[in-house]
Design goal:
This protein is α+β, with helices and mostly antiparallel strands and 452 residues long. It has helices at 16-32, 88-103, 136-152, 221-234, 252-265, 268-272, 333-339, 362-369, 417-422, and strands at residues 37-53, 56-74, 77-83, 157-176, 181-199, 202-212, 244-250, 293-295, 318-322, 325-326, 353-355, 372-379, 383-384, 389-400, 403-416, 424-427, 437-438, 442-450. The strands form three sheets. The chain has a six-stranded antiparallel β-sheet with strand order 3-2-1-4-5-6. Strands 7-12-14-15-18 form a five-stranded mixed β-barrel. A hairpin with a 4-residue loop joins strand 4 (157-176) and strand 5.
Length: 452
């Protein structure tokens, strides 16, 4: 990947000591204003994003953002304020506004900082910061290279919806009146492409992308374009199928969504509102006994890695599902108090939630499936977390005799999330690590596929 000696600098982030000084200032002013406890976060980030279509620059943006957030607690009252200005005057104004809001809110005994004894005593070095000194010119050239590879990959590629390159570096600092204060530098870069294939009057589009903390771990830009083209061409001639109940194989990029629905159903907010089909489900078997779903927050360079959560609580490896049984919920301090439990260190979300993978690759999963539907794209929002009902539009491929036979579109797959999770037959070795949920393709025993 090309780089330039004239590349834009990503060293214009402020020093961690300056952000920590501002957080300390906010906390001191909160105490002086009468807050019992307080927390503050300051972040700064810089980046570049480019999108090219038909070889021409469609968009080119330089990003430079600064933000401050302050939350104060007056007894059981809570107030929050934010600002994009990091001057000392803006910090003072934000604290004053937060305190004013708190004085006008009703008391809630669940409000407050996470317990002091749960704060991270040490923050592990997770190798999350790898700035990419890429100039705008080189980013444009890289995007053009990606798009050109897609166009040249197959004569049936008629067009593209563009190729993009993104570069991001940031520094965030969090502190609270327990004495916790830490700064974390992070980076995140990506390349993407959307290809449009056509044959006769039929047209199909598909995409591919790569994302990583370090530019050296990104897929080659040409390969990203080629994969986008391959996926689009493979969908040409797609048709619907007859309605029946068959096994369904969720490819890894969409299988992540199934695990995401499970996480959403065991989040504290959904549970204390009684708005989840998994209320009071601790200790229940939700998946087959051979499956394990574990949070691994300390994976070096992991996209979901973090040494502490959004409240300063130390993170650690912890199973969500073990032997198929739900071991815990996904809680921050507030939702934990509402439920009479303890925080699980998940303020801000999960960190590298990993479903145990099997040894079978995609071909092995297809052979095990025999006959059914491979899902590569999902559409619509037909997931009801209150009831667990699941119904979404889908596209993919029809399988007969353990091999893909033809592309499929305009179908709906339906079932219940309990049935889907409990009916998992295999998890593939093709683990997709491009996010904070990491899983291979998931084979489910049976769902209703509604087509013609």
């Amino acid at each position: 990947m090309a780089q330039s000696t004239e590349a834009q600098s990503h060293n214009d982030l402020p020093e961690a000591a300056e952000l920590e000084r501002l957080v300390g200032l906010a906390l001191d002013r909160a105490r002086q204003a009468g807050a019992d406890t307080a927390e503050a976060g300051v972040s700064a980030d810089t980046g570049l994003s480019v999108n090219v279509r038909k070889g021409e620059v469609d968009t080119l943006e330089h990003h430079r953002n600064r933000s401050l957030g302050v939350t104060v607690y007056l007894g059981g009252r809570k107030g929050s304020a934010s600002s994009g200005d990091l001057s000392e005057a803006a910090v003072a104004e934000a604290v004053e506004a937060a305190c004013a809001f708190a004085r006008h809110t009703s008391e809630d005994p669940a409000n407050g900082l996470a317990p002091a004894e749960r704060m991270a005593a040490e923050v592990p070095e997770l190798d999350l910061y790898h700035p990419w000194p890429l100039s705008a010119e080189d980013a444009v050239a890289l995007a053009r290279e990606c798009e050109a590879a897609a166009t040249a990959a197959d004569r049936r590629i008629r067009n593209t919806e563009g190729a993009g390159v993104s570069v991001h570096s940031g520094l965030s600092t969090y502190g609270n009146t327990h004495g916790f204060l830490a700064s974390v530098p992070e980076s995140r870069h990506g390349i993407n492409c959307v290809a449009v294939a056509g044959e006769g009057e039929g047209m199909q589009r598909d995409f591919w992308y790569t994302v990583a903390r370090s530019p050296e771990e990104l897929e080659d830009a040409r390969r990203v374009g080629q994969r986008a083209a391959e996926h689009a061409v493979a969908r040409l001639g797609a048709e619907s199928v007859a309605t029946e109940r068959v096994p369904v194989l969720f490819r890894a990029p969409v299988a992540r969504g199934l695990i995401g629905h499970l996480v959403a159903a065991v989040r504290g907010g959904a549970l204390y509102r009684r708005a989840s089909f998994l209320v009071d489900s601790l200790g229940e078997r939700l998946m087959p006994a051979w499956l394990r779903l574990e949070e691994r927050p300390h994976i070096p360079r992991g996209l979901g890695s973090a040494g502490f959560d959004g409240e300063g609580v130390a993170t650690a490896d912890s199973p969500l599902i073990a032997d198929g049984v739900l071991q815990r919920y996904v809680l921050d301090a507030y939702s934990a108090r509402r439920l009479g439990l303890e925080t699980t260190g998940n303020a801000g979300g999960v960190h590298n939630l990993e479903l145990s993978a099997g040894e079978a690759d995609l071909e092995g999963l297809l052979r095990r499936m025999g006959r059914g539907l491979v899902v590569t794209e999902l559409m619509g929002q037909g997931v009801n977390l209150v009831t667990g009902d699941y119904s979404r539009g889908a596209a993919g491929f029809w399988v007969e005799g353990g091999a893909i036979q033809r592309p499929v579109e305009e179908v709906t797959i339906a079932g219940s999330l309990r049935g889907i999770l409990g009916g998992i037959q295999a998890v593939g070795s093709d683990v997709d690590r491009r996010g904070n949920i990491r899983t291979g393709s998931i084979l489910v025993d049976e769902m209703t596929v509604a087509g013609q």
